[in-house]
Design goal:
Keywords: Glycosyltransferase, Transferase
Protein name: Undecaprenyl-phosphate mannosyltransferase
Helix content: 40-55%
InterPro entries: Glyco_trans_2-like, Glycosyltransferase_2, Nucleotide-diphossugar_trans
Domain Glycosyltransferase 2-like: 65-223
Strand content: 5-15%
Biased composition (Polar residues): 10-29
Structural class: alpha/beta
Length: 288
């Protein structure tokens, strides 16, 4: 039987002596836990900082149909189609020939062979508004953009026109020739007539446009769903403006360039069309 003295010696042998260093441990899991906690703290700080930042607008990819009414534009049709294709924002170009008689149709038959172009031909001359109705019925895109077949309007402005819709800020965009440079159109009478018609349209619609008569109009397809359009000629512009306003669509303007041409170069709108536009402004502000 062990004596008390022997038991004391055994206990002293089993316990480490004072001041002795313990053996190093191989368990590093506490370091992993510390790093994980630090990373979570940094992520929380980053999330808090993002809450203070303004949210960036979300862009939406758009399938764009270019609608191009054409009547006797033999000298410009190839070039304007090439310009549209160089910009390259479109899914398709829908060209409606309104019974051209100057050789334009022969060129369009050739262009129709290209994959991104579809040509529709009217059997008789019906007017710009009628050609646009045909183009709208044929178009497949989410967004419809009107392009004249002359060279007055430059497709390099497409991105300006599409951006408000891509950002979800607008349902409709009008390209204004007068926002940045009102004297792009050298004709005083044309500028005066345009301003008078735009003013009259604004009075009846409540919009604040500077260029109601512009060619460049861009629409989300949904804004036109079920809309009955009646005007065959240039009355299309005030008619569709009035009907969009009555639907409470978000209409904004974007500045565009403009290279005016004269009547000797093929310009078609005249005084008669201006008088018709005034009638359309009154009519479509009250009746459908």
């Amino acid at each position: 039987m062990a004596t008390s003295h022997e038991l004391l010696e055994d206990q002293q042998t089993a316990q480490p002596t004072a001041g002795a260093t313990s053996a190093p441990t191989s368990d590093n899991s506490y370091l992993d836990r510390a790093m994980s906690t630090l990373e979570q703290a940094e992520a929380s700080l980053a999330d808090a900082a993002r809450l203070d930042e303004p949210e960036a607008p979300q862009r939406v990819a758009l399938a764009v149909s270019i609608l191009m009414p054409v009547f006797n534009e033999r000298d410009t049709i190839r070039e304007i189609v090439a310009q549209v294709q160089r910009v390259g924002v479109h899914q398709e170009i829908v060209i409606v020939d309104d019974c051209s008689t100057d050789g334009t149709r022969d060129i369009l038959i050739e262009l129709d062979r290209q994959d991104d172009i579809r040509v529709v031909m009217h059997g008789y001359n019906r007017g710009k508004g009628a050609a646009l109705r045909t183009a709208m019925a044929q178009a497949k895109g989410d967004v419809l953009l009107i392009q004249d077949a002359d060279l007055e309007y430059n497709p390099t402005d497409y991105q300006r026109l599409l951006e408000p819709i891509e950002r979800g800020e607008a349902d409709v965009v009008y390209g204004s020739r007068f926002l940045e440079n009102a004297h792009q159109d050298p004709s005083f009478m044309h500028r005066f007539g345009n301003r008078a018609l735009t003013w009259a349209s604004n009075v009846t619609t409540g919009l604040r446009l500077t260029d109601m008569e512009t060619c460049y109009k861009v629409f989300r397809r949904d804004t036109l769903r079920g809309m009955m359009l009646r005007e065959d000629r240039f009355g299309f512009e005030p008619e569709i403006t009035a009907k969009l306003a009555r639907r409470k669509c978000r209409v904004v303007e974007a500045p565009i360039g403009y290279n005016s041409r004269g009547y000797d170069e093929g310009k078609k709108i005249g005084v008669r069309d201006g008088l018709r536009a005034l009638w359309c402004i009154v009519r479509y502000s009250r009746w459908d």
